Amino acid sequence: MDTHQPNEQRARLEALYTEMRPHSLYPLWEVLHALVTPTPATTAQPWKWGYAQARDYLLRAGDMISAAQAERRVLILENPGLPGSSAATNSLYAGLQLILPGEVAPCHRHTQSALRFVMEGEGAHTAVDGERAVMRPFDLVLTPNWQWHDHGNDSAAPMIWLDGLDIPTVRFYAASFAERMGGEHPATAAPGDTTARYGRNLRPFTGSSAARRPQAQPLFHYPYGEWRESLDAMARGEAPDPALGHALEFRNPADGGPVMPTISAHVRLLPAGFRTTPRRATDGTIFVVVEGHGRAVINGVAHDLARRDLLVVPSWAELVLEAGSELVLFGYSDRAAQEKLGLYRAA
Ligand code: GTQ
After folding, report:
1. Bridge pairing between strands 114-120 and 140-143
2. Taken in order 273, 335, 43, 51, is the CA torsion positive or negative?
3. Which CATH number fits the domain that encloses residue 217?
4. Does residue 12 sit within a domain?
5. Within-domain flag for 10
6. Among residues 89, 161, 182, 219, which is most buried (max CB within 10 A)?
7. How many CB atoms lie within 10 A of CB 70?
8. Radius of gyration of the chain from its Cα atoms, rounded to whole angstroms
9. What's the number of domains the chain is made of?
């Protein structure tokens, strides 16, 4: 509203607001510009978590509390601009989960969709509806909405992965349901069964006894060895996109769309010395440095990137990536949800 009001008008309005407030009524004209902003406004901040430091705190927690006791032994990567929210971006959560040798994180399911991106360790598993995905560094594993999942570590070393969930989104819609089974889900299939049936452009006959997995969301394991090879093939064959580098999105084979209804995930490769053009997008994104080193310049501020570092780039922040060596990144965001809602924009 026009802020140059005569004092007398201001005083009468203030008196009116005071009278209305107990009845939960407020004047839009005082807040309209903050509600309907010309460009995205968020208090979320760009932030980088150095992996070595986060890992150290996580292992110290591992000495003090078991996975079973904690239910999930996880350090939340909370955005400093969203205090108390357990959120990394306005819509998404990020955390680092530790499973020590011999431990089990008990079976449960919830309406939140989750992804796991392996940071270190080899041979631990996430079981989805009773089928184990044996996890190796930089594998992507999904636990879609309402699918049972437990985690276990039969290997001899600690296993750490990044948890990416839509916790803030589900909270926004007040649509959280959760159930606990405890322990481990009874085995329903051998490891690799889903990949063999659904992961190679094959599927069992619909309605047959062999059609095991939910039709809309069958696949849950995207191994590093496969996606890395695809990025390499792409990098050999063509010049990188100026704003993205070589980028590939993980997709749900059932519909060709994003991996889950609320979360999109992708990987990108920047050749050594490559510098992207500045880019903004409405999907605040959480990145993991998979290989190499470089810098992320976010709204003009540089953040050094080393292997396994974690980075959050809020909505509409200007991002420039610089590859000091060949740089490989994993990223996830709420682009999947925004595209369905007609909100996604990039420039
Ligand atoms: O592994 O199911 O980081 O339910 C947060 C909530 C992990 C999990 C998290 C969860 C999980």
Report:
1. antiparallel
2. negative
3. 2.60.120.10
4. no
5. no
6. 161
7. 16
8. 23
9. 1
Residue 118 burial (C-beta neighbours within 10 Å; 0-12, 13-18, 19+): buried
Atom of ligand 1 nearest to the CA of 110: 4
The share of the chain scoring above pLDDT 70, in percent, equals 99
Element (H, E) at 160: strand 159-165
For a mutational test of ligand 1's pocket, the pick from 72, 77, 103, i.e. the residue with the most ligand atoms closer than 8 A to its C-beta, is 72
Residue 347 located in a structural domain: no
Q: Which residue segment(s) compose the domain that 225 sits in? A: 47-340
pLDDT tens sequence across 116-144: 999 999 999 999 999 999 999 999 999 99
Q: What is the pTM of this model?
A: 0.96
**Which residue has 């889903």 as its token pair?**
194
Residues with beta carbon inside 6 Å of ligand 1?
72, 74, 95, 97, 110, 114, 149, 163, 165
Would residue 9 count as lying in a domain?
Answer: no
Strand order of the β-sheet with 47-49 is 47-49, 310-313, 285-291, 327-333, 264-270, 246-249
